[in-house]
Every structure is written in C-alpha cells, then in structure tokens.
Amino acid sequence: MAAAEVGDDVYGEDPTVAALEAEVAELFGHEAALFTPTGSMANQIALQLLVEPATELLCDADAHVVAHEMGAAAAYGGISTRTWPAAGGAIDPAQVAAMIRPDGYYAVPTRAIAIEQTHNRAGGAVIPLATMRALREVADAAGIGLHCDGARIWHAHLADGVPLAEYGRLCDTLSVCLSKGLGAPVGSLVISTRERIARAREIRKRLGGGMRQVGILAAAGRYALTHHLPRLVEDHARAARLAEALAPYGVVDPSTVRTNIVPLDLSGARLDAAGLAAAARAEGVLISVLGPRFARLVTHGDVDDAGIDRAIKVLTAQLAG
Ligand SMILES: Cc1ncc(COP(=O)(O)O)c(C=O)c1O
Fold first, then answer.
1. Does ligand 1 come within 6 angstroms of the Cβ of 44?
2. For residues 31 and 194, what is the distance between their CA atoms, to the nearest angstrom?
3. pLDDT tens for residues 192-246?
4. Closest ligand 1 atom to the C-alpha of 188?
5. Which residue out of 120, 179, 260 has the highest number of ligand 1 atoms within 8 Å of its CB and is therefore the one to mutate?
6. How do 110-116 and 145-150 pair as beta strands?
C-alpha cells in the first residue's frame, strides 16, 4: 500500500485502481469493473444499472440488498423490491419466473432478479451452478437482468470449483467484496459491460463514492486477490471443524456448513443470541447476533487453528451451561 502508485481516480487517473479494475473484470470474463468503497454501494450501483425508478427488483427476503442496505434501493434508486420467501439459500427458478411482471398500464414491471453468492443469512450457503443457469434462462426469457451480490463469491468458487468467469458469464452485473474473507481493509467492485460501467462511474459519483488517490486501497485489494484468495479453503475447513464441534448441542447441522460461516440456531439453547455473544465476548470470542435466537460465526484470516480450539472451548461451555 505504501508503495502504490496513485493518481486522481475521480479523473480516472489512478493506475493502481485501473489495474485492479482490469484484473477483476478479467477474472469474471467481463469488459469492465469499478472500485467502490463498500459492497453496499457496489450493489446499489448495480441495481440502478438494471432497474430504473418505479420498476421492480425480485430477490429473496433475506437478501442483503433488501434486508441490510437501509432501504437504499428505494431511497436512492426509486426501486420497488418484491421478495420470495428465503429458504436457506435454496431458490426455485420456476417460483421466481412466476413472480415476474410484464410492462403495462397499472403494472410495476420487473426489471431484474438479484441473488446472493454465497448467502450471508443462509450461513454462507452456495447457490448451485445449475440454479444460476436456470435463473439466467428465466431472466433471458423475460428480457430482464440478473445481478449477483457476490460479496463472498470467492468462497462459492472454491467450495464448488466453479470458475469465476462462469459466474460472470451468467450475470449481467456482479458486486464483489475485497474486505470480507479476502481481508483487504476496504473495497468492493461492480462488474459488467464497458457501457454499464461508464454509467456506474456517474452513479458512484452521485452517491459520493468518487475517491481521489485511492490506489493505496486498491493495492491492498490486489494483494488480497493474489495472496489471500487461495487460503480461503483453510477458513472453510476451520468452519467445518467448528460446526462439527457444536453440532452435539443441536445448534447447527454441519452438513450445511460449506464455506466460512457457521449459522447458529439457538431456538432450543440455554442462551439467546445476545446472551451467548456477551458470554463469548467476555472470553475473547466475537460472534454476530443476527436475530433473537440466531447468531453467526465467521472464520477468517485472523483466526488460526488455536483460535478455533479456543472458540470451541468457550462456546461449548456456554451451550452446555
Ligand atoms: C452478502 C453481502 N452483500 C453486501 C454486503 C455489504 O458490504 P459492505 O459492508 O462493504 O457495505 C455484505 C456485508 O456484510 C454482505 O454480507
């Protein structure tokens, strides 16, 4: 980062940002990409590219774009959202197809479908390639777009062995994050065609996301892609070990844990999510509270095998009570 060559990226003059954008576009087999400060901004730019004001987006009820982006699609894009029930990351393409509304008087026409790969609230579930292909066909048949919130698409790529370019081929727009499992301090990208990314640059500026000498952050992202991407499989193995150790307490089915997230269903547990999180924090183990009886454990580059051993010791003691 300290050695990064920088320029004013608002004028498109930062060579390190340009290199990162070109590398990521190529990884996904697309023409262009745009660096953004956050995954939320990358998602919202992509949605605005595909869904004009007063038309609608379809996604599942637990999708980050509707559940955790503070109404941004409505507030900044004038976008209506309609959801199908979240089913642990499982998607029925026929059900999605049946929801699509055509143009017409009295209508809110559907312009795009959004999916999340991997699915955060579904515990890092991987959407099968066959499902994505079927959704592509659904979108093509209706003449609408397909967006992938790929904040953790790197994990799906490694878990299922699907080339990133295959995911790219199936989607009109993708967002990807460098700042989650990849471990860069900041940064995401929107990926699409050259024409769409030119518009994305304008939308980013409108949202206040045009940044100046930002190559220092892009340099971290480039480093993460080279050095941290391959090691995500270690996080997956550690999450699987954590899930196996907690399974006897009835809080997780280890067969569902395929990436770096261990979702805990605490409905039958002694402690609720806030109680478990507080008790774990007191012992130096940090977990997320996603609902009254729903918690999330995430493995990442700062948690080694000894850290997993400690998490298992602390959490099993609390769950056993
Ligand atoms: C699936 C998913 N998409 C998008 C985001 C947004 O990323 P950011 O926090 O960088 O806005 C997150 C953040 O947790 C996420 O889990």
1. no
2. 5
3. 999 999 999 999 999 999 999 999 999 999 999 999 999 999 999 999 999 999 9
4. 10
5. 120
6. parallel
